[in-house]
Amino acid sequence: MADNELTDEQKLLLEDMSGIDKAAVLMLSLNEEDAAAIFRHLEPKQVQKLGMAMASLSDFSNEKVTAVHRLFINDIQKYSNIGIGSEDFVRKALVAALGEDKAGNLVEQIIMGSGARGLDSLKWMDARQVATIIQNEHPQIQTIVLSYLEPEQSAEILSQFPEPVRLDLIMRIANLEEVQPVALQELNEIMEKQFAGSASAQAAKMGGLKAAASIMNYLDTNIEGQLMDAIRETDEEMSQQIQDLMFVFENLIDIDDRGIQTLLREVSGDLLIKALKGADENLKEKIFNNMSKRASQTLQEDLQNMGPLRISDVEAAQKEILTIARRLADSGEIVLGVGGGDNFV
């Protein structure tokens, strides 16, 4: 066996560890200066999630830490011959880390020497601050900002606007396909900062139905429902397209069994009971089948004995589980299925 090859015992130790836990172990293995240098290259949400994971780690054996280190060494050796420093390496590494869609524009910015510093600064701000900054700007500028930021943050920002404005912006996002350099320059002036280097002459792809659906996924249930109704009244075809792209609670049935088991390890029993109170019977059955026999029987008994719940409480619980599912999907631990479904139970 090669020096860096994982033993069966180490593979077993790593089985129950999430990707974020492994990253936390690696970060805690570094000195403060090196850990801080890595944090500077992460997105705000990544810093928050990783920091929380590091703070909550406890009772990790030396064997488990060693297993994480060996897995890391094995992983980085896969990229040892790509050609560090080359454009090809940068492109492949970013695509592997961020996915094709997110990496595309970033690759061009890095290779061509441009960087949206003004926009990036918004990622570190509170949603209310960003809403205040852009509230008096042209709707097209607001659309670009919301399309650029992460869906979860954009949803929080969108929630700060009045209902008619939300409708206008989400429909603009859905119809947006690319942003011309002139629009980026206008946004540049609003932020009162300049991009590093000159702006690319190529149009930047952002927005679209998928972006609108992603933002809708993170909205509060009541706001989401009002907004979807308003979109349907204005453009029924668009509302259906957005709804088809949204990942709702009933879509959890499309996750494979291993993914469901991973998700259940992250969800508390009380939260699960509330969420399943109004769930489809087929989804309930899938949940039960991916639990131990004893846990499944207990959950079913608790559901039967539970009194009536307000729909808003059920929906809030389902939203919270969906947020956990998206976090696990972002870290590559589960794969979310995509399909339509009703937004209410």
Q: Structural class, please?
A: mainly alpha
How many strands in all?
Answer: 2
Q: What's the CATH class of the largest domain, please? A: Mainly Alpha
Shape: globular
The biggest beta sheet reads: 2 strands, antiparallel
Count structural domains.
4
Mean pLDDT, rounded to whole units?
74
CATH superfamily of the largest domain: Flagellar motor switch protein FliG, alpha-alpha superhelical domain
CATH structural fold name of the largest domain? Annexin V, domain 1
End-to-end C-alpha gap? 54 Å
In what order do the strands lie side by side in the largest sheet? Answer: 1-2
SSE string: HHHHHHHHHHHHEHEHHHHHHHH
Just name the CATH architecture of the largest domain: Orthogonal Bundle
Helix content: 55-70%
Radius of gyration: 22 Å
- The fraction of residues assigned to DSSP E strands is under 5%
Count of individual helical segments: 21
Low-confidence stretches: 80-86, 108-116, 193-203, 338-345
Quick tags:
2 strands; 1% strand; 21 helices; 345 residues; disordered C terminus; Annexin V, domain 1
Textual characterization of the structure:
With 345 residues, this protein is mostly helical. It folds into four domains: 8-77, Annexin V, domain 1, CATH 1.10.220; 83-111; 115-245, Annexin V, domain 1, CATH 1.10.220; 249-330, Annexin V, domain 1. The chain has helices at 8-15, 19-28, 32-39, 44-56, 62-77, 87-98, 100-111, 117-122, 127-134, 139-148, 151-158, 163-175, 181-191, 209-218, 221-234, 236-245, 257-266, 269-276, 281-289, 293-305, 311-330, and strands spanning 178-179, 204-205. Helix 11 (151-158) packs across helix 14 (209-218), helix 12 (163-175) packs antiparallel against helix 14 (209-218) and helix 14 (209-218) packs across helix 16 (236-245). The radius of gyration is 22 Å and the shape is globular. It starts with 7 loop residues before the first helix and ends in a 15-residue tail after the last helix. The model is unreliable at 80-86, 108-116, 193-203 and 338-345 (pLDDT under 50).
